[in-house]
């Protein structure tokens, strides 16, 4: 391994101990290259954190921290969120960093805000050239704890009218990367006036987000 290897044991300590390292109780928002709007849905993560702290007893800091690939602080965050509408580009070094991060115990949730998927599907094999994206069934714990989603990923926004999909990479039986598309969970996490979603729809989005957080921090 290259530059990132020296951070391996520091990162493992942060992931295992949760909260004993600076920033370990914060969510990370991944800033990526390529021109896509990584900063989309600015109220989404703060609202998700507020919901999780109140509903499932997490103790997350109110504001997510922007995290760039290639920076040391990547290894301080057990959970990264990534979103946007447009292009995504990972350099070989950035793909290596994400691979090490995920293999060491980190978790990445990518939520297609509509239009991101075609670009992302070309870049993900750079992270795991030896793995295939797998469809995640409704019996997976991410859909059963603490909230039950009997049909799997909920549909929050219609867009193309296609069914919502949850794809992922697994390492030693653990889901390490979750890619949600045709659902737009992040839009459902935003302030009510942003998209004017019905409260029931927003609640489904927040509950699904809570399940993702719960899984990432417990597994």
Please tag this protein with its features:
219 residues, alpha/beta, Rossmann fold, seven-stranded mixed beta sheet, disordered N terminus
Which helices and strands, and how do they pair?
Elements: H1 8-17, E1 28-31, H2 44-55, E2 65-68, E3 79-84, H3 92-103, E4 107-112, H4 117-127, E5 134-135, E6 165-171, E7 174-181, H5 185-189, H6 192-195, H7 199-218
Parallel strand pairs: 1-2, 1-3, 3-4, 4-7
Antiparallel strand pairs: 5-6, 6-7
How many strands?
Answer: 7
With strands numbered from the N-terminus, the spatial order across the biggest sheet is: 2-1-3-4-7-6-5
Approximate helicity band? 25-40%
The biggest beta sheet is recorded as:
7 strands, mixed
* CATH topology name: Rossmann fold
Question: What is Rg?
Answer: 16 Å
**Would you list the SSEs in sequence order as H and E?**
HEHEEHEHEEEHHH
Second-tier CATH architecture: 3-Layer(aba) Sandwich
CATH class division: Alpha Beta
Percent of residues in beta strands: 15-25%
**CATH H-level homologous superfamily name:** Domain of unknown function DUF4159
Global outline: globular
Q: How many domain modules?
A: 1
Helix/strand class: alpha/beta
Give the end-to-end Cα distance, rounded to a whole number of Å: 25 Å
The multimeric state of the shown protein is single chain
Separate helix tally = 7
Q: Could you report the average pLDDT, rounded to the nearest whole number?
A: 88
Poorly predicted parts: 1-24
């Amino acid at each position: 391994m290259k530059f990132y290897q020296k951070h391996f044991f520091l990162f493992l300590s942060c992931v295992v101990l949760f909260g004993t390292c600076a920033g370990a109780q914060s969510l990370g928002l991944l800033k990526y290259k390529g021109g896509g709007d990584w900063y989309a849905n600015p109220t989404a993560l703060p609202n998700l954190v507020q919901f999780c702290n109140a509903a499932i007893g997490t103790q997350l800091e109110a504001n997510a921290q922007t995290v760039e690939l290639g920076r040391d602080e990547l290894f301080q965050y057990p959970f990264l969120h990534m979103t946007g509408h447009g292009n995504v580009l990972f350099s070989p070094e950035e793909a290596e960093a994400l691979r090490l991060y995920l293999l060491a115990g980190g978790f990445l949730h990518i939520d297609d805000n509509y239009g991101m998927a075609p670009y992302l599907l070309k870049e993900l094999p750079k992270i795991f050239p030896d793995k295939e994206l797998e469809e995640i069934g409704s019996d997976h714990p991410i859909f059963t704890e603490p909230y039950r989603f009997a049909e799997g990923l909920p549909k929050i926004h219609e867009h193309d009218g296609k069914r919502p999909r949850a794809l992922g990479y697994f390492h030693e039986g653990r889901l390490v990367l979750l890619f949600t598309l045709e659902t737009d969970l992040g839009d459902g996490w935003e302030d009510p006036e942003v998209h004017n979603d019905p409260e029931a729809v927003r609640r489904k989005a927040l509950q699904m987000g809570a399940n993702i957080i719960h899984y990432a921090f417990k597994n």
